[in-house]
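In response to a reviewer's request, we include the raw inputs and outputs for one of the modeled complexes. The two entities were modeled together in a single run.
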Amino acid sequence: QVTLKESGPALVKPTQTLTLTCTFSGFSLSSSGMRVSWIRQPPGKALEWLARIDWGDNKVYSTSLKTRLTISKDTSKNQVVLTMTNMDPVDTATYYCVRSISSTNWLDPWGQGTLVTVSS
Amino acid sequence: EIVLTQSPDFQSVTPKEKVTITCRASQSVGSSLHWYQQKPDQSPKLLINYASQSISGVPSRFSGSGSGTDFTLTINSLEAEDAATYYCHQSSSLPITFGQGTRLEIK
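The model returned the following structure tokens for the whole complex.
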């Protein structure tokens, strides 16, 4: 059974850097085809894809947020880390990590999400 | 970037009614269009993949159709548990994009 779980601070101040960790089980990110994405959802709003990393350590980012995001993986710990710099109140959202496979590309399963509030 | 536009944004429906949600892409995505259901305070759940392929465990009243730029999610004989927001997602090209969502309210 594949599961993912996000962790990180619930509250960050404006201008700070957010670091989120996705810890997963049931698959290995060193296995060919495996990918993990980060997606966020502001309260009451739609889903927004942020970044993705794959088994070959290839990384892709949202065009609009590219300069603020860094995604990395620790295969031995089954973790993917997302950092987002210069946080702003508009970045308040639930952040999800989700698995996909290169041969199919749908997003499944999703983690439970973690709500991050940006406020001074 | 491929923009996905869903309609309607909101619909209030009665149980046993048939519901149709559409998703229109700004350029062709072939069949690389997937549907998700998000219930309140839950994470999204895959409902239909590649426009029309059923997912194990998803009730058969959910079905999808379409290709290219126009897609439809149909819910036959709506049940109270189908109250949720539905999103389409394209995996044809980067960046990955989602529709703005369609919220279904059960009367």
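As requested, we also summarize the result in words. Residues 10 and 60 of chain B are 23 Å apart (CA to CA). DSSP finds no helices and eleven strands in chain B.
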